[in-house]
Amino acid sequence: MAKVVVVNTSPRKGANSETLAMKIAEGAKDNGNEIQVFNLRELEINGCKACMGCKKTGNCVQKDGIKDVLEAIKEADGLVISAAVYFGQPNAQYRILEDRMFSFIDGEFKPFIAPGKKLAVVGTSGGDPVACGTIADGILGRLGGFFKFDAVGKVAINGCNPPNVAAGNEEALAQAYEIGKKF
Ligand SMILES: Cc1cc2nc3c(=O)[nH]c(=O)nc-3n(C[C@H](O)[C@H](O)[C@H](O)COP(=O)(O)O)c2cc1C
User: Is this structure's pTM higher than 0.85?
Assistant: First the structure.
């Protein structure tokens, strides 16, 4: 059985980003995968300290909540990650996780982690119809480029200031579920 890690980085519990990520997870589970979920809002997390300790070992020296997430991703066959647009960028908790993925590469940017982990991304925004897709594409591009994840899809929706918009968007939910089936 393959393992898929879901990381919800948006701080709002049960809101749009998480709803879509969990729908991808449902598709992945129905396809026979084991699912492990992390909600960054529940964890004590710190930013990268640029100590370069990881460059020797491939492991971040910090012992916080992100350490467990990084270890789970390392062992997993796939990753579902959700983020919201905050001031045109992925929200801060997402940024912290991505910076800490610096520990996935050595000093020459060669990955310590196995290539080819499947990756699906959810991006949501409030009023900018382009930004949700832009942040999702950015995440797919960086995680694919630096850490050799293989993109299986993205779901990006705007109009998400109310927390329950995604839950009523049948098209986005169906798209998310179908992406999950690709894991
Ligand atoms: C601090 C902050 C900054 C935001 N900046 C933007 C923005 O630049 N563009 C945008 O379209 N929406 C922006 N939003 C709205 C969020 O992207 C939107 O509510 C998001 O879908 C929330 O995701 P969630 O439902 O998973 O919490 C911002 C929200 C917050 C709290």
Answer: yes
